[in-house]
Specification:
Mean pLDDT: 87
Order of helices and strands: HHHHHHHH
Number of helices: 8
Oligomer: single chain
Number of strands: 0
Low-confidence stretches: none
Largest sheet: none
Strand content: under 5%
């Protein structure tokens, strides 16, 4: 099987597509704080930093929208009979944060775009709000990703892991060869 065919097959499955696409808002929504804070250090004068931050937030927004769509498709594939009450609650939290989540980075990008205005009070005000909005995006991304990670790694949702089976954080069973005498 060719690499391109394998990638195409991965995008055909909504669970895998969701897992791939969430990396855009996770990475860029978080990393956008770096050029945004650096922009503040220049009194919001550096055009390259402003453009970089806005571009990162716009791509994060598009990725969040695409990931949410794939997440909705993936949710339809979940066997509700296999869900525990805790997993269902975690899914609800993850979904509520993901629905419309594309608006968070888009809003931060729009606020930062206002800082293109040359008038100092507007530039500083919009830039300062843009920094706060960018930090808010990073917080939203972190919380949404936390609940998504809980679904997969703790509850086994979307995997072939049995929810009550030992997890990665469980200690491995002792082997007969391990007698403790070193």
């Amino acid at each position: 099987m060719s690499v391109l065919q394998s990638m195409s097959d991965s995008f055909a499955d909504p669970r895998t597509r969701h897992a791939i696409l969430v990396h855009f808002p996770v990475a860029l929504g978080t990393l956008a704080t770096i050029p945004t804070i650096a922009l503040a250090c220049t009194a919001f004068r550096n055009q390259a930093l402003r453009i970089a931050a806005i571009a990162m937030l716009l791509i994060a927004s598009a990725g969040a929208g695409l990931a949410a769509g794939a997440g909705e498709e993936a949710e339809a594939l979940i066997d509700g009979n296999m869900m525990t009450a805790q997993a269902d609650e975690t899914l609800g939290r993850h979904e509520s944060l993901g629905d419309g989540g594309w608006m968070w980075p888009l809003g931060a990008a729009a606020i930062l775009a206002i800082s293109f205005v040359k008038k100092m009070p507007v530039r500083i005000g919009a830039g300062s709000l843009g920094v706060l909005a960018s930090i808010g995006v990073a917080g939203w991304v972190g919380l949404t990703a936390h609940y998504g990670g809980q679904l997969v790694y703790h509850h086994g949702v979307g995997t072939r892991i049995v929810p009550d089976a030992p997890h990665i954080d469980a200690p491995p069973p002792a082997s007969p060869a391990d007698d403790g005498d070193d």
